[in-house]
Specification:
Layout: H1 3-16, E1 27-31, H2 37-49, E2 54-58, H3 65-75, E3 82-87, H4 93-98, E4 105-109, H5 117-124, E5 133-134, H6 140-152, H7 156-185
Parallel strand pairs: 1-2, 1-3, 3-4, 4-5
Helix pairs in contact: 2-6, 6-7
Length: about 190
């Protein structure tokens, strides 16, 4: 969504409340199971911090493959710019989504029997022509930030919010550095 439109919507929401205009989601979260929600929560939190609208669904690559295909095929027309897929074990979900859309798909490996290594390897070993980006095991916050960066390529105001976020991160590190140096110097 262009920055001016987002600003207009934010002005209306500030004046009339957040229910005044429903902002279409830009990021879609697809969970292989409802038990994946705690691993996706950090991504949801960062998107809320950055004011990026999103949606969350539970779909199974193995149990509801037609629903997965339909979700992926309709994602762009519904306004999504990226999909974050959380899955454990065989982690087929990100690849199944990527097979049905040209949108970027970010795989979020969920810890499982092999501490999530099986999920991570599944997501990073996609066949040629079906790309899936992947963050580290349990890297929900990074998945959310990566998706926000994708959305920011078409939204200058979101890009500015991400720049501010990065500056705040840097300032926190500088403060920790200062405290550690003072503690060591005694």
């Amino acid at each position: 969504m262009p920055g001016r439109i987002r600003t207009f919507i934010m002005c209306i929401e500030t004046t009339f409340g957040s229910g005044a205009i429903a902002t279409a989601p830009l990021i879609g979260f697809v969970l292989g199971s409802d038990s994946d929600l705690p691993h996706v929560q950090p991504a949801i939190e960062v998107l809320k911090e950055l004011e990026v609208p999103f949606e969350v669904r539970v779909l199974s690559a193995h149990r509801t493959p037609d629903d997965v295909a339909e979700y992926a095929k309709s994602a762009k027309a519904r306004g999504l710019v990226a999909i974050v897929a959380a899955a454990g074990g065989a982690a087929a979900l990100p690849g199944a989504l990527a097979a049905h859309t040209a949108l970027p798909v970010v795989g979020l490996p969920v810890p499982s029997l092999l501490q999530g290594l099986d999920s991570l390897l599944s997501m990073t070993q996609m066949p040629p022509g079906v790309p899936v980006a992947a963050v580290g095991v349990g890297g929900g916050r990074n998945a959310g930030l990566f998706a926000a960066r994708i959305a920011a390529t078409a939204d200058p105001e979101l890009a500015l919010r991400l720049t501010r976020y990065q500056a705040e991160q840097a300032e926190r590190v500088r403060e920790r550095d200062r405290r550690v140096r003072e503690a060591v110097a005694g």
